[in-house]
UniProtKB/TrEMBL annotation:
Entry keyword set: Metal-binding, Zinc
Family to which this protein belongs: Belongs to the yippee family.
Keyword Zinc: yes
Organism: Brassica carinata (Ethiopian mustard)
One Pfam family named in its UniProt record: Yippee-Mis18
InterPro entries: Yippee (IPR034751), Yippee/Mis18/Cereblon (IPR004910), Yippee_fam (IPR039058)
One GO MF term: metal ion binding
Record's keyword annotation contains Zinc: yes
Protein name as catalogued: Protein yippee-like
Length: 128
């Protein structure tokens, strides 16, 4: 019985090492600008895929990278008045969506500091 237990632990240890190597080789799942493929967001930072943008479906992200944030302006959106700033790709200047700077409705405060990426303006990197 002791040998069987040692064999089992050896197999589990090997499986964990293989899984760890696989996880490291995959890397982060990235979204990129549709125009120049500059990395702009991580899949793990998606809060919701149920948003509406100017061009259709949009994703709410907690963070963004390699973007330029434009001037703030008040905009009346589907969920009420917000202060937003348009965001664009830092490499090619492609408009990508906007950043929520301020929400005036208490039920919308969770959006503050978050980013909307229009689905039509970003692409998944092909690694995943």
């Amino acid at each position: 019985m002791g040998e069987n237990l040692i064999d089992l632990f050896g197999e589990v240890d090997h499986a964990l090492k293989v899984f760890d190597r696989m996880a490291q080789s995959v890397g982060p799942r990235l979204y990129s600008c549709c125009n120049c493929r500059n990395h702009v967001g991580l899949h793990d930072d998606i809060i919701s895929k149920a948003f509406q943008g100017r061009t259709g479906r949009a994703f709410l992200f907690s963070h963004a990278m390699n973007i330029v944030v434009g001037p703030k302006e008040d905009r009346n959106l589907l969920t009420g008045l917000h202060t937003v700033a348009d965001i664009s790709c830092a490499d090619c200047n492609e408009p990508l969506g906007w950043k929520y700077e301020r929400a005036y409705e208490s039920s919308q405060k969770y959006k503050e500091g978050k980013f909307i990426f229009e689905k039509a303006k970003i692409v998944k990197e092909e690694d995943w």
